[in-house]
Amino acid sequence: MLNIMRRKSKSKAQKKENKKKNKQKKFVDLSVLCTMVGGNRIMAFRFFCTTNISTQHHDASAKTLVSSSLSLSNSRIRIYTPVRNSIHKCTADNVKSLVNTVVLPSISSTPLASLHRGNWVKLICGASFEDVVDIRNLSLVYTLAGVDCIDCAADASVVSAVNEGIEAARDIVCLRRPWVMISVNDDKDLHFRKAEFDPEDCPADCSRPCENVCPANAISFQGKSTLGISYNTEAPRVLKDGVITERCYGCGRCLPVCPYDKIREVTYVRDAITTSDLIKRNDVDAIEIHTSGRQSTQFEELWSALGDSVGYSRLIAVSLPNGGDSTISSMNKMFSIMEPNLQSFNLWQLDGRPMSGDIGRGATKESIAFAVQLAKAKERPPGFLQLAGGTNVHTIDGLKKEGLFQTTVTEYLHDDTSTISSSVSSHALIGGIAYGGYARKIVGRVLRSMQSQYGVAASINDHPEHLLMALKEALSLVGPIKCL
Ligand code: SF4
Ligand code: SF4
Predict the structure, then answer these.
(1) pTM for this structure?
(2) Ligand 1 atom 7: the closest Cα is on which residue?
(3) Which of 146, 187, 218, 400 shows a CA-CA span of 20 to 30 A to 45?
(4) For residues 103 and 66, what is the distance between their CA atoms, to the nearest angstrom?
């Protein structure tokens, strides 16, 4: 009897121990990663992911390099006391080893699966941003950080730069390729404009507030100067005074600050024929149509002009602002236009406060409010929902407060499942988040630092110490949505 009791007690203790071990297994320790050079130290992230992630690339030896670590767990970052800070140098091999460790979350999930789970992340390079050197470097860094999609201007050289960045990242680590999305517009749109002015018209005593306010370093008064070589051509890269057109992404912040009203905005509409040729490229996966949603005629004209090219796209996204009470009817109208020729998945990008994510915490409020409005609307048309416009490091907290972060349709509308199609009931109501200005800002700081040392045409994969700093920044944004 006593033996039986002991066995029972032992089996109970064993069960408890096994349960503990299983629980620990769920937290795949992706440990270690990132070398931060500059202070002769190595910093490391420690990821705890509840997702089922292969650890085949996990290089335990990388642990030996850790002197300081950051932990991303449930969106919170904890900083650990440095264990060792005597590392003075990182080699390219060390970089690869560390990167292999950190990119694991992105290997485990296809972009489509991320949309279903609600952990889709898109990098917005900018519908008008055309600095191919920055675009290549941003694409490289955010591919390593695990984004699902990279959205860029519908321009052949920009698309090539994005794909070169992706392939350079995949040369470092074998990981799945993010989708490449190109953006077009059906009418006048904030995302499709450039600022311009003639610097020779500016009063000599102007304090140049335009230069200070520009988040893209797109206004220069350096005088005509050669600042390096052009990307891919090795031709001298000459920057002129005034607006550097390729860097201007149309945020409009310079317009109201000019005391002499010298700055104009130039709007444009992307050519549908050129765009449809681009969609057919093997290295373009998705298209996004920016629309106000108010004029279905323009939307219909663009959709028609794109013709059969939309059949080449894996995902059709429609980006629209919050039109209040008319939003749902506009969405239904646009869906009815697309539906007869829609051969892929579709997505609605909820553009809260366009191009403002880098401004601060409050910028994300409008995108969250838009998400809440759409989540409650049962009559909305099919398609994934994704936030944009003002999104930043505070967006996940905002979604959590509203009970919308990676919440399924049935969980959110718990009392009424009869109206929900079974094919979508288990999917996340909000498919994910697109990050633009904020994502470019945090990595852009590292790019500027690299360029000040190595020239404006520097490729970040040639400078591992900067690559790892940039990757750390990118992961601070992408990590919390990928690793829970
Ligand atoms: S519109 Fe924005 S990005 Fe363009 S020059 Fe003005 S401030 Fe800079
Ligand atoms: S603020 Fe206006 S006047 Fe002054 S430098 Fe800029 S564009 Fe010229």
Answers:
(1) 0.80
(2) 214
(3) 400
(4) 17
